[in-house]
Amino acid sequence: MENLLTTEIINDRTLADLLTLEFLVSITGSVLGAIIILIAGFMIGGWLRGRIVRVGQMNRHLDDTLFSFVGNVVRYIIIGFAFLFVLNTFGVQTTSFVAVIGAAGLAIGLALQGTLSNIAAGVMIVFFRPIKLGDFVEVNGQMGSVKEINLNFIELASPANVQVIIPNSQVWGNTIVNYSVYDSRRAEWVFGVGYGANLKDAEEAIRATILADPRARAEPAPFIQVNNLGDSSVDFLVRVWCASGDFFQFQADMKRNVKEALDAANVDIPFPTRTVINVAE
C-alpha cells in the first residue's frame, strides 16, 4: 500500500513538471512568434513606404509630399495589422480590443478637435495640392516660400527669411494666393507727368525704357495709356508682362529707370506743393 502511494505521488509530480514544461514551451513559442511578427511588420511597412516614396522621387512631375504621406499611411496600417496578429497569438479577442480602441479614439477625438481639424485639412492639402514645396504663396495674410507641408501645419520662409508656421485649418479654410503656378506675371505702374508736358514724348520715353529691358515681354503687347487726369498730374497706366521669377525686381527697377528717362527727355514730373498764407499780415 505504501509503495502504491509513493508511485502515485511520483507520477503526479512528473505530470505537473511536464505540464509546466509544456506551458513554458508554449509561452516561449508565442513570445518568439510575436517578436517575429512585429519585426516582419516593421520591415515590410518600412520597405513599402520606401518603395512608394521612391516612385515619387523618380518622376519629377509627381509631388513628393503626396507619396510621402501615402507611404506613411501604408506603413502604419501594416504595423497595426502586425499588432493585431500578435494579440491573436496570445489569445486576445481582437474584436473587443478594436471596440475599446474605437471608444478611446472617440474620446480623444472630442478632446483634440482642433488638432483633428488640422489633420483633416492637411489631408485635403496633400491630395488636392493647392500649394507645393518651393511655391511662393500668400496665406492668411502671410507671404513666403513653402518650406514644409505636413498633416498639422505648413512652414513658410518670409521674404525676410523668417519662419512662419500656419495651422492647416487656417490654410485650407482661407484664400490661397499662389504666385508660382504660372510662369508669367503682369507688372503694373502709374507714372504721372505735368499738365504742361508733351504727352507723346512722355509715352515714347516710357515705352522705350521698359521695352529696352530684356525682362519685358513683347507678347502680350505692353499697355501704355493715359488713364487719369489727376489734380496736379496726367497719369499713365503701364502694364507689361514678364517672367514670374523676375516680377519683383523688374517692377522695382522700372520705377527708377522711367524716372531717369523722363528727366532726360525734359518731361516735367509734378510733385505736391503747398502754399502757406499768413492771415495775420
Explain what this protein looks like in three dimensions:
With 281 residues, this protein is an alpha+beta fold. It contains seven helices and eight strands. The strands form two sheets. Strands 4-3-2-1-5 form a five-stranded antiparallel sheet. A three-stranded antiparallel sheet has the order 6-8-7, with helices on one face.
What's the topology here?
Layout (H helix, E strand, L loop, with lengths): L1 H57 L5 H26 L4 H18 L1 H16 L7 E4 L2 E8 L3 E5 L5 E5 H5 L3 E3 L5 E10 L5 H13 L11 E7 L4 E10 L3 H18 L17
Antiparallel strand pairs: 1-2, 1-5, 2-3, 3-4, 6-8, 7-8
Helix pairs in contact: 1-2, 6-7
Can you summarize this structure?
The protein has helices at 2-58, 64-89, 94-111, 113-128, 168-172, 199-211, 247-264; strands at residues 136-139, 142-149, 153-157, 163-167, 176-178, 184-193, 223-229, 234-243. The protein is an alpha+beta fold and 281 residues long. The strands form two sheets. Strands 4-3-2-1-5 form a five-stranded antiparallel β-sheet. It has a three-stranded antiparallel β-sheet with strand order 6-8-7, covered by helices on one side.
